[in-house]
Amino acid sequence: MDVAQRAAARAIFGQVPVSGRIPVSVPGAVCIGAGLGLRANPMKLTLASNEMRAKLAPACALLDRAIADRAYPGGVLAVGHKGELFVHAFGRQRYASHSTKVNETTIYDTASLTKPVVTATLAAMLSEAGQLDIGSPISRYLPAWPCGPDHDRRDRVTLAHLLAHSSGLPPHEDYFVRLKTRSEILAQALAEPLVYEPGAESIYSDIGFILLGAIIERLAGRPLDELARERIFAPLSMTDTMFRPPKSLRPRIAPTERISRSHKSVLHGEVHDENASAMGGIAGHAGMFSTSPDLAIFCQMLLNGGIYAHHRILRRQTIQEFTSPSPLAANTRTLGWNVPTEPSSSGRYFSKQSIGHTGFTGTTIWIDPQKELFVVLLTNANRTHPDPDDDEIRRVQPAIHNGIMECLGLAPGPDQ
Questions:
Q1: Phi, psi angles (nearest 5°) of residue 343
Q2: Cα-Cα-Cα-Cα dihedral sign, residues 404, 408, 412, 414
Q3: What is the DSSP code string of 315-344?
């Protein structure tokens, strides 16, 4: 491609500004100097206007009040709307009054946000490159899979079933209690009996994404954390997103609390999920640490159709394939994401085209292409109740999403 062709392509896609002025006058038609100028489109987020900040103030007040209700000690909210980014940090890293205040760069254990941001995205990349066929049976990529019980049903499980949580695998097993290495856990996951007919239901399964992580590593010949860093985090300049954060970052990391066998422990920079911890902190279902501004970039990349700051991560049609409701999950999930159902952490106003996910530590992402909106909420929620359904964070999440929609004027009127 010659210089002129490259310049034309950059101009067409908004990478550079374009302007042109006529050097002469044409009597009765146009005067000298007439023309036009088009600004460059950076295809990246810009800081929120004062108007947007003012509109979202009531929603921020909801987050502040939830601290008193012991939903969490603090967190960071990021809202993107039509390319503008609003970020609000609130509270402290822990409940103690002397604890470090949260700021926009505070890092959180995102728990199951690892599934869509890392595992499903890498699967989409490999699918786009022709290295992975989501319609193929698991046995094509993991030869030990058919050796488990119920051979006939296992043969029918595809990668798409794993992505849509409809494989027949159970939701979770406490592998960490009796298994201490990554290879032992993967071997047990491969031998796990199915609990329902593949495709008959959609039951959220950590085990399915543990296997997806292993498949991705096998195909690419690289560890999952390296692949995520090189193919997702670095290209998007998500510099504060990683697995196994170094000890030097601990002052910036919000700790989490875990109850295991009636014993409460505080984790600081260590993954909360115990199976992921036993796997060395790197797994397809959990392990990613991040910040709200970093995840805001990821969300805007999806809203841009797979591109951010003129760097393409995925093709638009690939995003469409992986974010459309899947018949394998009765259209209640996509290939790696959730969609709004009743009830939902997204509240009442996100459109049917929206995608999102939650993390056990008190994290959420919701993206609404129809409204050109995303919301990222990262907290280290109090998840130490005997019954997780009693956790206050479950009430805060839909309330804050409803509040944001109402503040921005995106909620339907009373007659709609």
A1: -85, 165
A2: positive
A3: -HHHHHHHHSPPGGGTTSB-SS-B---SS-
Whether pLDDT at 227 is above 90: yes
CB within 8 A of 82, min separation 6: which ones? 372, 373
| 243: Cβ contacts below 8 Å, ≥ 6 apart | 224, 225, 228, 281, 282, 287, 288, 289
pLDDT tens digits, one per residue of 266-279? 899 999 999 999 99
Domains of the chain (ranges; CATH) run 3-38 (no CATH), 46-407 (3.40.710.10)
Residues 6+ apart with CB under 8 A from 220: 122, 126, 131, 227
pLDDT at 151: 87
The tokens describing 5, both together, are 């062709």
Residue 240: CB atoms within 10 Å = 19
What single-letter DSSP state applies at residue 230? I
User: Which of these, 347, 345, 245, 355, lies nearest to 294 by C-alpha position?
Assistant: 245
Q: Which two tokens stand for residue 125?
A: 């990349």
Burial class (CB in 10 A: 0-12, 13-18, 19+), 413: exposed
Closest CA to 202 of 232, 233, 160: 160
What is the rounded CA–CA span in Å between residue 311 and residue 290? Answer: 20
